[in-house]
Design brief:
heterodimer; A: mainly alpha; MetI-like fold; 14 helices; 0% strand; B: mainly alpha; globular; MetI-like_sf (chain A); transmembrane (chain A); ATP binding (chain A); Thiamine ABC transporter ATP-binding protein (chain A); cell membrane (chain A)
Chain lengths: 289, 314
């Protein structure tokens, strides 16, 4: 008799576990609904979209997808987005690593001032700053250096607004490298910059990857900067093209779905490969705080 | 120029303040800082100053700004009903985020927990919307919010349940709610991730000890887990409020701030005046007001929580 009364641990846990999974699965389904509807829509005709919008497409209609994939404009946007993303990411990682190293590892006059200056940037996000930034781009363009309607204008602004956050993240990583290493390097005859290139950078490589993954996402998804900088449609990036496409073909729900689907795929693929880095980058400082 | 010691004195000071061996390293430091400082001054500091200047002019961007009007732009903005509506909408989004979105993120983080088999999959799923672009998220939800129950899934479900269809994006009373749902879908994963990482840093022993002392699951959560998560919560509240103040893309794409300004935010208001109507002086003044709000909030918040959240680097 007594043995029956002792419920095994797994049974005591089974009921809460069941509800735990139930809620999590419902939440997962809710997360997926917009994405699945979009996927269905992308392989339907607009007629099907109007008559049976949320059925499983049967048979799938690939016309819209093929149409978009055979449009040079789509690949042009893809190319522009890639150019911007790669340049912004490379620039941000290199520039931020240099500043973070100097702030974390060297002593010099005005260090606190510079640190505080960069933290000020966190209070001035790009969405707030966009109009003043536009003035400056215009002013520089009028001075003869074309930044309006060029990808380089987009890249420079994106880098500028990525600085503050990433300098702080990387500074944390650089500070965490043990000082003994630094002492040993100097005794072996390294100067500051040997130390930076040969020892520090290889050591914080995973952190650089985390920052890079984060910047790639932000740059790839950015709409606002391309929106105010780029006029000619040959320079549009994917999000800007998506917005214009939506404005133009807003009524053609199937075509829009196909376009949004195709422009989401690179992000989703990248996310599945780089999730670890993205998560590491995002939570880098949050836990330490 | 600062002088540098010839070699670091390791034995006296475990972390020598001056590590450079040659004076030329001073130049090296300058070179390392230069690219960042140039971009930062050019695209953040200088524009702020420039904007303060322009905000005192009635200027349409054609030719130089000459019509100096002092603080009239600011007076006009603060007495504009539409701007006040925008401020109110932002406040509604902030309150809803703090009262609904963040607790929801916390609930899911606790459910995903530390040792649930398959937790990695759930984390991946919940975080997915965050990496999608705001444009794409907005368009996906526009499809779902389509007013016609034959076309929009949400109204389709409502009608199937015998409820009336709602003109989500065209009805002044519900449009902000529709926007908020979209924002929640897009951003709760970020907050959940912060909490989840925080949870992983709490040793399980603490909760086990409390359980042995007779604490039930709720007591355990409210008296043990929650206080230990104060750091990620602080960060997430900060990010949520700052994000709401500058909310732009999702609203601009889904409604353009309409209908009749019902979903206007400060950023859409600024964009409309600055870039659509080209009232650059007026737009600059809106920018400065938003900037001041961000700074005031940051300073007060850091004072209140006594921890510099900007150090989290997020």
């Amino acid at each position: 008799m007594q043995r029956v009364l002792i419920t095994p641990k797994w049974m005591r846990k089974a009921v809460p576990r069941f509800f735990q999974y139930l809620i999590l699965i419902i939440a997962s389904i809710l997360i997926f609904v917009p994405i699945v509807i979009l996927m269905f829509g992308s392989v339907k005709t607009t007629g099907q979209m109007y008559s049976r919008p949320y059925d499983i497409p049967n048979p799938p209609q690939w016309d819209n997808i093929i149409n978009i994939l055979t449009t040079p404009a789509f690949w042009g946007m893809m190319k522009n987005s890639l150019i911007v993303m790669i340049s912004t990411t490379t620039g941000t990682v290199i520039i931020c690593a240099m500043v973070a190293f100097v702030l974390a590892r060297l002593e010099f006059r005005g260090k606190n001032f510079i640190f505080n200056l960069f933290t000020l940037g966190l209070m001035f996000p790009i969405n707030v700053a966009i109009l003043p930034v536009y003035f400056v781009l215009r002013q520089i363009t009028q001075m003869g250096i074309p930044l309006i309607n060029t990808l380089i204008g987009v890249i420079l602004v994106q880098i500028a607004f990525q600085l503050s956050g990433n300098i702080l993240i990387l500074k944390g990583f650089f500070t965490a490298v043990p000082t003994e290493l630094q002492d040993a390097a100097y005794i072996d005859g390294c100067n500051n910059f040997d130390f930076f290139w040969r020892i520090m950078l290889p050591l914080v490589k995973p952190s650089l990857a985390a920052v890079a993954a984060l910047v790639m996402i932000v740059s790839w998804n950015d709409l606002l900067v391309p929106l105010i900088v780029l006029n000619s449609n040959t320079l549009w990036t994917l999000p800007l093209g998506t917005m214009q496409f939506q404005g133009q073909y807003g009524q053609d729900l199937a075509l829009i779905s196909a376009f949004v689907m195709l422009s989401s795929i690179p992000t989703i693929v990248f996310y599945f490969f780089a999730e670890k880095q993205i998560v590491a980058g995002l939570t880098a400082g949050a836990v330490k705080g | 120029m600062q002088s540098f010691p010839t070699s670091p004195n390791v034995s006296k000071n475990p972390r020598p303040p001056l590590l450079s061996r040659k004076t030329k390293d001073g130049l090296g430091i300058a070179l390392f800082l230069a690219p960042a400082l140039i971009l930062f001054v050019l695209f953040l500091i200088y524009p702020i100053i420039r904007s303060v200047y322009y905000s005192t002019f009635n200027w349409n961007g054609l030719g130089p700004a000459t019509k100096y009007i002092g603080i009239n732009n600011y007076i006009k903005i603060l007495s504009d009903k539409v701007f006040m509506q925008a401020v109110q909408n932002v406040l509604v989004i902030i309150v809803c985020s703090l009262a609904i979105q963040l607790p929801l993120a916390m609930l899911l983080a606790v459910l995903v927990g530390r040792d649930l088999p398959g937790r990695g999959i759930f984390r991946t799923i919940f975080f997915l919307p965050y990496v999608l672009s705001e444009v794409n998220a907005a368009i996906m939800w526009m499809l779902l919010f389509n007013a016609n129950p034959q076309r929009g899934l949400i109204n389709g479900v409502l009608v199937a349940l015998g409820l009336p269809a709602v003109a989500w994006l065209a009805d002044m009373r519900v449009v902000l709610f529709a926007i908020f749902i979209t924002l929640t879908w897009k951003y709760f994963g970020f907050h959940m991730l912060l909490y989840l990482t925080g949870l992983q840093n709490i040793p399980t022993e603490i909760e086990e000890a409390a359980r042995m002392d007779g604490a039930n699951a709720f007591q355990n959560f409210f008296y043990i887990t929650l206080p230990l998560l104060s750091s990620p919560i602080r960060t997430s509240v900060y990010m949520s409020v700052l994000g709401s103040i500058q909310q732009f893309i999702v609203v601009w794409i889904m409604t353009g701030g309409g209908p009749v300004n019902a979903s206007e935010t400060m950023a859409t208001y600024m964009y409309r005046f600055g870039f659509v109507r080209f009232q650059l002086g007026y737009g600059s003044a809106v920018t400065i007001i938003m900037f001041i709000l961000c700074v005031i909030f940051s300073l007060i918040y850091q004072q209140l929580t006594k921890k510099p959240d900007y150090l989290t680097g997020l």
